[in-house]
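hi support,

uploading two proteins for the ticket. first:
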Amino acid sequence: MNSAILQFLTLLVIAVQCVSIAASQSVSRPGFIFLPFEDKSDFEGKWDVGTDVPRFLSAYFKERFRVPSISPVLVKDFMNGRRAAAASLDDVKLWMELFKRFHLRYLIAGTVDQFDVSRFMTGQPLVGGYEAFKGEVRISYVVYDLERTAVSSSPVSVRKGEAAGEFADRSMTLTLFGKPSDRTIEFRDLDKIAFGSEDFNGTVIGQAHFRLAEHVSVDLENALKPLKGSNLSSSDSLLLYGQSLDNISLSLKPVIITGAIVFLEGKSVFINLGSDDGIYVGQHLDVFDEGRESTRKRKGEIEILDVRGPHLSHAQILIGHKELKVKDKVMVTLIKP
């Protein structure tokens, strides 16, 4: 074998090894890295909502999708460990360091646009009346594909969106002679509760966060196909899942909600599920015939356009518009705390 051929084969082996190393470094798993969000809300309490809101989302995603999810607290710890605390959160070099450390495909950045807990009261404050409470949280977010960003060396966004969660406590509490009720005291001391704790999750703002997280989850589940069917089968994934644990721990359970089509015209339908059933705009529901549960077959899919009341919503038919009819069953699985 002459020296030219030998030299060529040597260069070819080196090139193959370099490609192999580069490929191994770019391999990623389904999962999320949450950056701290920018806080644009008017909230003035003790909670750091720019960190705590995405931290809650991270814990929710981890349980809902069963994939590793790195919270903004762990991102801050990583930055402090690398002496990069002053680095800009939109610095692609920082993102690549996070990608190299955690090998997770998606990075989420965003803003907290609203974070509010409201108290409503009717009657005379010094005599007697009724009070109720409402929690609201609204965010904007961008999802980046770190695997494609590593190849292009510039940010590659794959999803932009807005989402909101709102929960109103409809049970009115009686107040007498200006004496604060237990719920009023809880409202005043709300931010003394640990964010994401079991006590927090039972408040109106905690319940609003569950609704927010589910809205974002459904949007990303439909947009990011690799999330569907992902699991923690490999030992590496299980290890990373354990390393991604934060001190927010959520216990979630799936609940199947069933309703029916009550009116149909063209591709427009009304169903007997609404706000009290956990229905929201943009949600997708499967449609089945009205036969026995054991023999039902999926015959279509609808998307919620407008929630008209506690048990009424307007939707459009996405699949099966020629087959659907009044009294067909609609079903959706909701994630409940």
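and the second one:
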Amino acid sequence: MTPKVVAVAGATGLVGNRMLQMLEERDFPVKSIKLLASERSKGKTLTFRGEQIPVEVLTEDSFKGVEIALFSAGGGTSKKYAPFAAKDGCVVVDNSSAWRMDPDVPLVVPEVNAEDIKWHKGIIANPNCSTIQMVVVLKPIHDAAKIERVVVSTYQAVSGAGVKALAEMRDQITAVLENREPVCKVFPHPIAFNCIPQIPQSDAFTENGYTSEEMKMVNETKKIMGDDSIRVSATTVRVPVHTGHSESVNIETQRKITAAKAREILSLAPGVVVLDDPANQVYPMAIHAAGKGETFVGRIREDISQSRGLDLWIVSDNLLKGAALNAVQIAEIL
């Protein structure tokens, strides 16, 4: 790939920072880089490859001459500015939910459906963090035995809700340990020493009783896997973990697949690391996945309640594979 002019929109946020980190660590061929954010970040500088880069205010004209733009600035911002970028000939890889279910926009996990990148029209969507790590593991099994049904419960880290959420968790932990009442500003209930079965923090629940986060997993899984016949039910829960989403996943397949065969298939799958020796207490955990780009799977076992079922435990860094790394991997294919 020839060196590209790159922009990162939302550069000062958690995921924006990780995008810069991934561009640097993966030695992405950057000719020059623009760091874009809201008016609040005007005057800030960020380090990229040892150089201090000033943060510019995101405008409709920010993308003239830019070839690839990584967006992690929220759905409203993406809806407003991504079309301007595409109009200027820039390819947008967007981390928000704004474009994911648009039929004209590919929703891509490179290990699963990289070929969909070919039909982009200027915008490519990065899936939801929880969906990404799940489909990376499920696609090889789907290819081998055809998955008919998925039931997933997630245990999602606080970093997925942003910098203010992490600060709130830290403050609440201190308050509880000092016998003070925890203050809730980001979350509807205390997150310290608690689990909240609601994501996002507000306006979460839809008419069918599922949250918007849960419906993202339902709909995005079908689109990425290219199979609308897969039945998916999800329960998403915020837990007091800093970084790293964990998922308990139960699948029903059309053709029986043993746990041993699943381990064999997954051990060869791109981007997947099998950690599955429970007798020696070896299984994926968030504290081990944090800071790593792979998706980890373990606790692989045959479902004793049905003849063609498997249970799996899937863990990944929600800021890396769940967001920044996946976006950069897409950019590498362009």
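thanks. also noticed: The chain has three domains: 4-126+324-333, 131-157+195-318, 163-193.
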